[in-house]
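fyi for ur records
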Amino acid sequence: MSAYGTSAGIQYRFDGTVANTMQAHRLIQHYQEEKGSEVANAIIDSLYSQYFEEAQHPSSHGTLLKAAIVGGIAEQDAKAFIEDEYEGLQDVKMLIREQAGNGIDSVPYIVFEGRRRDFTLEGAKEVGEYLKALEQVARECM
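which gave:
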């Protein structure tokens, strides 16, 4: 993983805290619904950077607040949401249960829709496996 990260300009650290990320998911879901995918993606990028490169706790208030601010959320609004750890929590838990009911229990879970069949990749895969699935879908579309 470190070699892949280095080639993409990411310096992974593995000395951080491994912890429950429910509050991070709650933050992402809330602002995706409220502000859209561009804001949610900026929050996600910040959370990934803080966790994987800076070894920050994935659900600490400080980590979540920094990510929200990077995503363009006003500090006061972000603090209010983060401090109310129950706002939106049931919605996120429902979405997780819904996906588990669909047989999804790992991330990433990617489905490439082909003409004749779909190609599903579950969990971390080598780049070549994604390429192989995309090439197969492309062949079916010709």
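The chain has a mean pLDDT of 93. thats all i got for now
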